[in-house]
Amino acid sequence: MDNWLFLTEQEILEEIGKSLKKIRLQHNLTQKELSEEVGLSVSTISFIEQGKSTTVESLIRILMRLNRIKDFESVFRVGENLELKLKFEKAKLKSDRKRASKKIR
């Protein structure tokens, strides 16, 4: 799903679960192997992949193991990037200011 704006919370959880399962399989890991490596139960991994709610801590553990924590980090960098962009734009506007030429009387 490209746009989560129109999904319910449950649908978003299901999308996250599907994505995590796909990534886990790309890493050639079973639920049991992943659960052992991240310190979660197999049932927790299964629930997450089925779109059940989870804790942020569990999600972080899984993302770190699957080398996808940068994806999660980017969620919290948006404001900083926007703030930097706005500062840059403001500085550029200041440097581009021109004064009107003096009128001859």
Summary, kept brief:
The chain has 5 helices and no strands.
Describe the secondary structure blueprint for this structure.
Layout: H1 9-26, H2 31-38, H3 42-49, H4 56-65, H5 69-96
Model description:
- This protein has 105 residues and is mainly alpha-helical.
- The protein has a single domain (9-93), classed as lambda repressor-like DNA-binding domains (434 Repressor (Amino-terminal Domain)), CATH 1.10.260.
- Helices cover 69% and strands 0% of the residues.
- The model has no long low-confidence stretch (mean pLDDT 85).
Distance between the termini: 66 Å
What is the count of β-strands?
0
The chain-level structural class is mainly alpha
- What is the average per-residue confidence, as pLDDT, rounded to a whole number? 85
Primary descriptors:
single chain; 105 residues; mainly alpha; 434 Repressor (Amino-terminal Domain); 5 helices
